[in-house]
Design brief:
About 30% of the residues lie in helices and about 25% in strands. The protein is globular, with a radius of gyration of 14 Å. It has 5 helices and 8 strands. With about 160 residues, it is α/β, with parallel strands linked by helices. The protein has helices spanning about 25-35, 55-65, 95-100, 125-135, 155-160, and strands spanning about 5-10, 15, 20, 40-45, 80-90, 95, 110-120, 140-145. The strands form 2 sheets. Strands 1, 4, 5, 6, 7 and 8 form a 6-stranded mixed beta sheet that branches. The protein has a two-stranded antiparallel sheet with strand order 2-3. The mean pLDDT is about 95. The chain has a single domain (about 5-160), classed as 3-Layer(aba) Sandwich (Rossmann fold), CATH 3.40.50.360. Bound molecules: flavin mononucleotide. Flavin mononucleotide binds next to α1, α2, β5 and β7. Flavin mononucleotide binds near residues 16 and 27.
Length: about 160
C-alpha cells in the first residue's frame, strides 16, 4: 500500500445516539485504521468549534456548507501513496470542514479510500464529493460505512475492509 495518511474529522461532546462522549466515533475508527496500517494522521479541526449540544451543532453544520474554515491546512501530500478520507456523515455527506481540508491538495496518482460513520444513511453523497475534490486520484467508491454507535466494536470490520 506504500505510505498512507488518514485525513479525518470527528467531533466529541453530545452525539446522536451515544450521548456525551470524549472521543468522536470517527476518531475511534481512525485510530483502528492507524493501528492496522501505520498511517500518519491529520485531524481536521474547525476554526470555530461546533457547539457541544447536538441540536445547535446540526444547525451550525448546515450553515457551514461551502464555508467551513479550519485551524490548519495540509499543504503537501506528495510523500503519500494512499489517503484515507474519514468523516461523520453530516446532512448527507462529509462534514463541511473535510471539503476545506481537501481543497487545493494535489491528489494525482494517489489511491483514496473512504470511511464514514453515520446513524442510518450510510456513505450517502460522500464518495461522490470525495471524488469531486480529489481530481486525478484513484478513488475507491465502495468505501466503508460504520454505524457511529458501533465504532468501538468495528476493528474487525475495518481490518477485513483494509
Ligand atoms: C451535524 C450532524 C449531521 C448529521 N447528519 C447525519 C446524516 O445525514 N445521516 C446520518 O446517518 N447521520 C447523521 N449524523 C450522525 C453522525 O453522522 C454520527 O453520529 C457520527 O458517528 C458522528 O461521528 P463523530 O462522533 O466522529 O463526529 C449527523 C450528526 C451531526 C452532528
Amino acid at each position: 500500500m506504500g505510505k498512507s495518511l488518514i485525513i479525518y474529522f470527528s467531533r466529541a461532546d453530545e452525539n446522536y445516539s451515544v450521548g456525551w462522549i470524549d472521543k468522536g466515533n470517527t476518531e475511534i475508527v481512525a485510530e483502528f485504521v492507524q493501528e492496522l496500517t501505520g498511517a500518519d494522521m491529520f485531524k481536521v479541526e474547525p476554526a470555530v468549534p461546533y457547539a457541544a449540544d447536538y441540536n445547535t451543532c446540526i444547525k451550525e453544520a448546515k450553515q457551514r456548507v461551502g464555508n467551513a474554515p479550519i485551524k490548519e491546512k495540509l499543504k503537501d501530500i506528495s510523500t503519500y501513496d494512499t489517503i484515507f478520507v474519514m468523516s461523520p456523515i453530516y446532512w448527507g455527506t462529509y462534514a463541511p470542514e473535510v471539503e476545506t481540508a481537501l481543497e487545493g491538495l494535489d491528489f494525482s496518482g494517489k489511491a483514496v479510500r473512504i470511511i464514514c460513520t453515520h446513524e442510518g444513511s450510510g456513505l450517502s453523497g460522500m464518495p461522490r464529493d470525495v471524488k469531486r475534490m480529489c481530481a486525478g486520484a484513484d478513488v475507491d467508491m465502495s468505501g466503508l460505512a460504520i454505524v457511529g454507535s458501533q465504532a468501538k466494536n468495528s476493528k474487525l470490520k475495518v481490518s477485513e475492509w483494509l
